[in-house]
Write a structure and sequence with these properties.
Layout: E1 5-10, E2 13-18, E3 23-29, E4 31-36, E5 39-44, E6 47-52, E7 55-62, E8 64-69, E9 72-77, E10 80-85, E11 91-97, E12 99-103, E13 107-112, E14 115-120, E15 133-137, E16 141-146, E17 149-154, E18 159-165, E19 167-171, E20 175-180, E21 183-187, E22 193-199, E23 201-205, E24 209-214, E25 217-222
Antiparallel strand pairs: 1-2, 2-3, 4-5, 5-6, 6-7, 8-9, 9-10, 10-11, 12-13, 13-14, 15-16, 16-17, 17-18, 19-20, 20-21, 21-22, 23-24, 24-25
Length: 223
């Protein structure tokens, strides 16, 4: 028994009895799988759904369900995946992705074709555009890639640096050093330009300045 009810099998079909031993749901289910808290994964015919107690909370329309935690489950129809809420059956992420995985514990990374998107674990869509690749960068940003160019988003999905750079790296004092067509520049962590992308090299000078090189000429920026 879980609470007041228990699943029982009779002639290869599963039903639910109360503590008085009487059926509250007559045997009709083909399979009973994971049971988490008040939720049970069950199969009716060849489709899976979820019961909350004895009530259907996720309709029997899925080819596979995998418990994710926090009242959510991965859901598959044919070869496509999404995310459903266990208490009401709502698709928090539409069943249209080729793969969905937990990413860096806090996020879900979804692939559709050869493009990627990032969601929160509750299905909130963080990225507004599919990218060729997405990675967590310095724990503060998402580094996104389109073709051979990179950009940055903050953890809420707001663009910090447009997808136009050949490389992006954290520099002294939390600047972002960007390279575009062989030229260097600096952005601050909010994406504002500090040093234009036009120099051959940038280095810290006397702890208070940035020394820039253009051809055989040198200059200074205060910081």
């Amino acid at each position: 028994f879980v609470g007041d009810y228990a699943f029982v099998c009779k002639k290869d079909l599963w039903g639910i009895i109360g503590k008085d031993g009487k059926f509250v749901v007559k045997p009709k289910y083909n399979y009973v799988g994971e049971q988490k808290e008040d939720y049970s994964k069950v199969k009716l015919g060849n489709k899976y759904g979820v019961l909350q107690g004895i009530q259907v909370s996720v309709n029997f329309e899925y080819d596979e369900l995998k418990y994710l935690g926090n009242d959510y489950a991965y859901a598959r129809i044919n070869a496509k995946w999404g995310l459903v809420e266990l208490d009401n059956g709502r698709q928090a992420i539409s069943v249209r992705y080729d793969k969905i995985n937990v990413y860096e514990e806090r996020y879900l990374k979804a692939r559709i074709g050869d493009k990627y998107e990032i969601f929160s674990r509750s299905g909130y869509k963080i990225t507004t555009t599919p990218y060729d690749d997405i990675s967590l960068f310095e724990g503060k940003f998402f580094k996104v890639k389109q073709g051979n160019k990179y950009g940055l988003l903050n953890l809420s999905g707001k663009q910090i640096a447009a997808v136009q750079y050949d490389s992006i790296n954290i520099y002294e004092r939390n600047f972002l050093k960007v390279v575009q067509n062989g030229k260097c520049g600096l952005l601050n962590v909010s994406g504002t330009s500090v040093v234009p992308v036009q120099y051959d090299d940038i280095s810290l000078y006397k702890s208070k300045y940035l020394k820039v090189k253009q051809g055989n000429k040198l200059g200074l920026f205060s910081i």
